[in-house]
Amino acid sequence: DAKTTQPTSMDCAEGRAANLPCNHSTISGNEYVYWYRQIHSQGPQYIIHGLKNNETNEMASLIITEDRKSSTLILPHATLRDTAVYYCIVRVDLGGKLIFGQGTTLQVKP
Amino acid sequence: DAGVIQSPRHEVTEMGQEVTLRCKPISGHNSLFWYRQTMMRGLELLIYFNNNVPIDDSGMPEDRFSAKMPNASFSTLKIQPSEPRDSAVYFCASRTTGSGGNTIYFGEGSWLTVV
């Protein structure tokens, strides 16, 4: 699975959009981009995933660049409860395992 | 639907004792994963099963660790003998490999402290 690079930490004001970047320059054509988050003391939680096209669900939007070498997770209206570690993971869709990096610690501030 | 269920949620044990962590995956899921999380090493995959068969145990730290999946609804992770460096949060996760099987669901973890 391709390696990902994320900033260690980010801050966001409550109510504003949080934009979390991820670089995956060695991504292969059959690899998907997945985002998970982990709120303190809880198990990781799936957010969204995509291959080429931008994706949106009730939690977030995923913007993937045309060359697929980077992506951005967007939380449109961040709340204090969105404070968590966000993991960007690249893997083959039906591959067995998720390998977690260090992620981005997002702090949403009042 | 019930999520992935882990037990115990918290355990404190003495060095040298045997520790058994238990996991019930989501009904119908046929892949199961055990992860360990520490501050120093983050989230590490220990082992995963497909259809009750261990597929990749390369993350199992050493022979003191063993995992079994006797049936589709139950798995154990055993540490014998336990050591203080085994103190961590152990997560179990599951998913289905059928259609729509992109999402891996995690339990709430078992917090292990070895003193």
Radius of gyration of chain B: 14 Å
- How much of the sequence lies in strands of chain B comes to over 45%
Main beta sheet strand tally, sense and closure of chain A: 5 strands, mixed
Shape of chain B: globular
How would you write the strand order of the largest sheet of chain A? 1-9-8-3-4
Oligomer class: heterodimer
Helix content of chain B: under 10%
General shape of chain A: globular
Portion in beta strands of chain A = over 45%
User: Structural class of chain B, please?
Assistant: mainly beta
Structure write-up:
- In chain A, the strands form 2 sheets. Chain A has a 5-stranded mixed β-sheet, with no helix packed on it. In chain A, strands 2-7-6-5 form a 4-stranded antiparallel β-sheet, with no helix packed on it.
- Helices cover 0% and strands 47% of the residues of chain A.
- Chain A has 110 residues and is mainly β.
- Chain A has no helices and 9 strands.
- With 115 residues, chain B is mostly beta strands.
- Helix content of chain B is 0%, strand content 54%.
- Chain B has no helices and 11 strands.
- In chain B, strands 2, 4, 5, 6, 9, 10 and 11 form a 7-stranded mixed β-sheet that branches.
- In chain B, a hairpin with a 2-residue loop joins strand 7 (65-71) and strand 8.
- Chains A and B meet through strand 3 and strand 4 of A and strand 4, strand 5 and strand 10 of B.
Short key terms for the protein model shown above:
heterodimer; A: 110 residues; mainly beta; five-stranded mixed beta sheet; four-stranded antiparallel beta sheet; 9 strands; globular; B: 115 residues; seven-stranded mixed beta sheet; 0% helix
Tell me the layout of helices and strands.
The complex is a heterodimer of chains A (110) and B (115).
Chain A: E1 9-13, E2 18-23, E3 31-38, E4 45-50, E5 55-56, E6 61-64, E7 70-75, E8 84-92, E9 104-109
Parallel strand pairs in A: 1-9
Antiparallel strand pairs in A: 2-7, 3-4, 3-8, 5-6, 6-7, 8-9
Chain B: E1 5-7, E2 10-13, E3 19-24, E4 31-38, E5 42-50, E6 53-56, E7 65-71, E8 74-79, E9 88-95, E10 105-106, E11 110-114
Parallel strand pairs in B: 2-11
Antiparallel strand pairs in B: 1-3, 3-8, 4-5, 4-9, 5-6, 7-8, 9-10, 9-11
